[in-house]
Amino acid sequence: MKRINIVLLALAFCLTALPALAAGPKMAMEKADFDFGQIFQGEKVEHSFRFQNAGDEPLIIDRVRSSCGCTATLLSTKIIAAGDVADLKATFDSTRFSGAVVKTIYLYSNDPVQQVTELHMRGTVKQEIILTPPRLDLQNLVVGAPKEIVVRLSNRGKMPLSLSGLQTTTPELVATLSAEQVAPGSEVDISIRVTPKEGAGRLNGYVILHTSSEHVPELRLPVYGTVAPPATK
């Protein structure tokens, strides 16, 4: 009898020691934060966030939302059975960003305790090509009084840069390059001549330049300003 009691006690201990699934659906994210380090502007970063349903009922993902359109998401499945795993693939497009960035993804589920799970993609976006200034805001332009501006293009990358296809989107702008080849760490000038036309009121256009960069194949320099009529005598 004593031996039977010992066996029953041992069996009871083993059963209580087994890990039990949580009641209902439960979101268990493997790692909610991903640091992609340093990338060049224009590069895309992909990462898969893995999570498990640690509950005893199906986990249902209602929707996925990103903090901006620069981060696309793809869910492997919307319904995760108890104990199963799923992946959320996230892609961050760095084209419009520079410096330190943090992008947030919101995962909405039927987890009764944590209905919203936040995921983060963070890192630093370096600019391979820098325009100084990055845009031209020209106030008080006068009809009949052309204006000359110089914009500096810097190659911050590790490879030589070839420039081509310099053009503008409006006849009031004429642009020329000081050189078409830019060594790493070097600079070239973009000279822009603005000739406001009568009756325009405002100037809006772009200077467009193609590059050999894999990350930034095209540069667009916005040019805008106000145009005053010529002075009367």
How does this model look, in words?
Mean pLDDT is 90; it is low at 6-19. It is built from one helix and 18 strands. The radius of gyration is 29 Å and the shape is elongated. 21% of the residues are buried. The longest helix has 16 residues, at 2-17. The chain is mainly β and 233 residues long. It folds into two domains: 20-126, Sandwich (Immunoglobulin-like); 129-228, Sandwich (Immunoglobulin-like). Strands 2-9-8-4-6 form a five-stranded mixed β-sheet, with no helix packed on it. Strands 11-18-17-13-15 form a five-stranded mixed β-sheet, with no helix packed on it. Strands 1-3-7-5 form a four-stranded antiparallel β-sheet, with no helix packed on it.
Number of strands: 18
Distance between the termini: 122 Å
H-E string = HEEEEEEEEEEEEEEEEEE
CATH superfamily label of the largest domain: Immunoglobulins
What is the CA-atom radius of gyration, in angstroms? Answer: 29 Å
CATH architecture of the largest domain: Sandwich
What kind of sheet is the major sheet?
A: 5 strands, mixed
Spatial order of the strands forming the largest sheet? 2-9-8-4-6
Which class best fits the helix and strand makeup? Answer: mainly beta
What is the CATH topology classification name of the largest domain?
Answer: Immunoglobulin-like
- Count, helices: 1
Q: What is the average of the pLDDT values? A: 90
The best one-word shape is elongated
| Highest-level CATH class of the largest domain | Mainly Beta
Q: Please mark out the parts with pLDDT under 50 across 5 or more consecutive residues, or reply none.
A: 6-19
Compute the number of structural domains. Answer: 2
User: What is the percentage of strand-forming residues?
Assistant: over 45%
Helix content, binned percent: under 10%
